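Ticket closed. Logging final result for UDP-N-acetylmuramoylalanine--D-glutamate ligase.
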Amino acid sequence: MVSNKLVVLGGGESGVGAAILGKSKGFDVFLSDRGELHAKYREELIRRDISFEEGQHTEAVVLAADLVIKSPGIPDKVPLIVSLHEKGTPVISEIEFASRYTDAKLIAITGSNGKTTTTLLTYHLLKNAGYNVGLAGNIGESFAWQVAEKKFDYYVLEISSFQLDNIVDFHPQVAVLLNITPDHLDRYNYSFQNYTDSKFNIIKNQSARDHFIYFDDSEVILGEFSKREIIPSKLGISLNHEIKEGAWFDDGYLAINSKERPFRQDFSELPIKGPHNAVNAMAAILAAQSVGVETDKIKTGLLSFVNAPHRLEQVAVINGVTYVNDSKATNVDSVFYALGSFSQPVILIAGGVDKGNDYSEIEELVRQKVKGLIVLSVKYEKLRDYFSDIVPQLYITQDVQDAVNQAKSWGVPGDVVLLSPACASFDLFNNYEDRGDKFKAAVRNLEKS
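Final structure:
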């Protein structure tokens, strides 16, 4: 008999979507959020006659559940979740729940960096080829909501480690693992192995008929191959060496070595730049090939792709200086990739809420490429102290317009002004989108002056 009392913890996009799917499948649904629900989600719940509370979790109601779906933002170690585990109540993620009610083929993409671009590009390649495909996970509309109300044959899912922590039978036919670098370690008892294990959950239910696409240059990923059985068919990606079955970067070309459909694509023709995006593009191509997309459709899709905002997004060229918004770069690894995307001198705008960053990872690139560092942050001391003797000039501010104005004063034709913060945004902004939008507005003010 199906568990009937379903409690959803968290009333954001994924939580409300899970509640809607639960109700459509006959569950007695109750949604609980410790914060205040967004008005549009509150209205949806009322309209659909789904019971909910906000501003608290009523423990007695939650603990009476037969099944709990929790927001990825709620750690497993909070007392309420611990109590549920002790009681033996299943606690799962929205992606696990939604996957139980769809026969669609799933392409699931994870990694510490690059997963949003890869997910969007993979979705674009399938959509461009005429596939009936949905976009979900960490991006777009709720996976569960789409399963409840739409009928897609394929889903491309951006999946975080937090979502993978609470899967049971989630089974993607195509799994992509782009990289594993230290991130969110506070959620994993500061154990990098725990975080790595979470990422590898993406393949735990795959069969020999499925595909596992991975970055073959990652020592962390390759190191795990000796520790665990890899059941699905492996497709590697490399920037440094030829891959017999997979893809590699060959003298400026994306070289796809596939038994069925090998091809080459001049990477310089694509609208996305930098070695990290070469990896993302090869992953998307292999994923699209794995579900049968034809080569000519892949080639046209690659050329027409438009990336999401805040990811190496060119904002403007003013007096020969290019302004680039990379506000999504909230860790050092992302800044490493961003700096590697440019051969021109860079004026770097960085800073925010430091997550235990190790700036030695980018020190050599900063020495080579950065002609000036602008620290946009309330707590600026760590960046200032690390880079003051490394960069030719350094400026500190808490105002994004002031930061952009200072960058303009340093810039000469051919330079790049790059917002790539390496930090979270919450000291001065609502989120990374807000930071990126305010940076773009500040650049546009330069155009007017």
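The longest strand covers residues 370-376. No further action required.
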